[in-house]
Specification:
Blueprint (H helix, E strand, L loop, with lengths): L9 H16 L2 H12 L7 H32 L1 H11 L1 H9 L3 H18 L2 H13 L5 H25 L2 H22 L33 H18 L1 H32 L3 H51 L6 H5 L3 H4 L1 H11 L7 H31 L10 H17 L15
Helix pairs in contact: 1-8, 1-9, 2-12, 3-4, 3-6, 3-7, 3-10, 3-16, 4-6, 4-7, 4-9, 5-6, 5-9, 7-8, 7-16, 8-12, 8-15, 10-11, 11-12, 11-15, 11-16, 11-17, 12-15, 12-17, 16-17
Length: 438
């Protein structure tokens, strides 16, 4: 099947993703304060909140590990729009819960809903959006298109945190729930499906492509659950069959492990060391989002043709390492704000990795390929809290063996360094459509 080079429907996709991300990000500055108030009222350090957050991350990661390849595979056959509906609808439930009330009992109800809905929602919307973009953009322009998509999420991040900065906590969750509902309705009404026939689900194996389909579909009479379980074994087989994919998988795993460790530790670290609250978290997030938006929307389309994805990936990971090492030794409350400027470059890796992967597979396998990378990120999210949550709790408590509150973030920095070293081994990739051409 010929690859389309049009941008049909991408405007509606970008607006859908903007609304969805807005509803997710607007609650981020407040969720730490809500957790602390519900679990450890009046305290700046709470072991229970740290471990509950880590447990939620493990459950979400395990579920996503199984769900992401399945969601991507099903979207290759039934269309991206159909599969987007499920996670976007489930995303509304936990937001509506805290929009109703934020007492201790309601918080636990939210916690359970958030944990189980995230199994389907966490990463799947972005995964399907990436596959949608790959359906509609030529290989040479995908890195820029993926960068624009990431830039849209960064714009949503900035707008959401600006709103959160000036809204009360109660109003914040009411707005989040309303925007989540609006994003789902907008997607269903306006977003055209990028797959209009079933031929994408019936691959014809060409000699110049990968030796076998990325994830072979099970016969129709088999239960889809077995396909999800079987996908883990097939992921390992796929990594052995393609050197660029295996290299990107390694980089994706270690960079996601580091980012998850930073995310799990940084807010509790900043609250314990510098007594950050909702407004200061929002200010910090605005800097992150603004830097990421400018970088992805303005700089990345210029830098990709000049430097290529592989080199830009290494540059982004290097600045990601520098960001983590600077935060872990922060000596004043202004240091995290200065470190946030590194986001200009550290935002690059995800778009670069997704572009490299998309060039290694055909159009009928884009959903599966992006699903595999998302599942590897989910695996990292499973492992991360097992290591970083105990470290964070230990070094923020009075039981710490030595005075180094940022120790867990330093460990995340070393993990990112492994990803950086691995990225230096990735050679320039040859698009699958160019293989075998004279």
């Amino acid at each position: 099947m010929e690859e389309t080079t049009t941008f049909h429907g991408l405007g509606h996709l970008f607006f859908t993703i903007f609304l969805y991300c807005f509803s997710s990000f607007i609650v981020a500055p407040a969720i730490t304060d809500i957790s602390m108030a519900a679990l450890c009222p009046g305290k700046d350090e709470c072991s229970l909140a740290i471990y509950l957050s880590g447990f939620q991350q493990v459950i979400t990661g395990v579920g996503s590990l199984m769900m992401m390849p399945l969601m991507g595979s099903l979207s290759d056959k039934h269309g991206r729009k159909c599969l987007l509906t499920l996670p976007m609808t489930l995303h509304i439930l936990p937001l509506a819960t805290l929009a109703y009330s934020r007492g201790t009992t309601i918080f636990y109800i939210y916690y359970v809903l958030k944990t189980f809905t995230s199994i389907v929602c966490e990463g799947s919307v972005l995964c399907l959006a990436l596959a949608y973009v790959a359906d509609n953009v030529s290989e040479g322009r995908r890195a820029s298109a993926f960068g624009i998509l990431t830039g849209i999420t960064s714009c949503a991040f900035v707008c959401a945190t600006l709103c959160a900065r000036f809204l009360s906590i109660a109003t914040t969750f009411q707005v989040a729930a309303a925007i989540a509902i609006l994003s789902t309705l907008y997607m269903r009404v306006f977003l055209p499906d990028s797959i209009r026939d079933n031929s994408l689900g019936v691959p014809s194996i060409l000699s110049e492509k990968l030796s076998s389909p990325l994830l072979e579909d099970c016969p129709a009479h088999r239960n889809r659950i077995f396909r999800a379980i079987r996908s883990v074994r097939e992921m390992a087989s796929l990594m052995k069959s393609s050197v660029p994919l295996s290299q990107v998988a390694m980089v994706s795993f270690f960079s996601s492990l580091a980012e998850a460790g930073l995310h799990a530790s940084s807010m509790y670290y900043l609250k314990a060391k510098f007594h950050f609250n909702k407004d200061q978290f929002a200010d910090l997030m605005i800097i992150f989002g603004a830097a990421g938006s400018i970088s992805q929307l303005l700089f990345m389309p210029i830098l990709v043709p000049a430097l290529k994805e592989e080199r830009l990936l290494s540059i982004g990971l290097f600045f990601g390492c520098a960001h983590m090492f600077l935060i872990c030794v922060a000596w004043s409350s202004w240091v995290p704000y200065m470190a946030a400027i590194f986001t200009f470059f550290s935002i690059f890796p995800q778009s670069c990795m997704r572009s490299i992967v998309s060039k290694q597979v055909e159009s009928y396998e884009q959903g599966k390929a992006q699903g595999i990378i998302s599942s590897i990120c989910s695996l990292a999210n499973v492992i991360s809290p097992l290591a970083f949550s105990p470290l964070t709790d230990w070094f923020l408590s009075e039981r710490a063996p030595f005075n180094f509150p940022g120790f867990s973030i330093m460990c995340a920095g070393f993990t990112m360094t492994i990803a950086f070293i691995q990225s230096l081994m990735i050679r320039a990739t040859t698009p699958i459509s160019d293989m075998g051409s004279p």
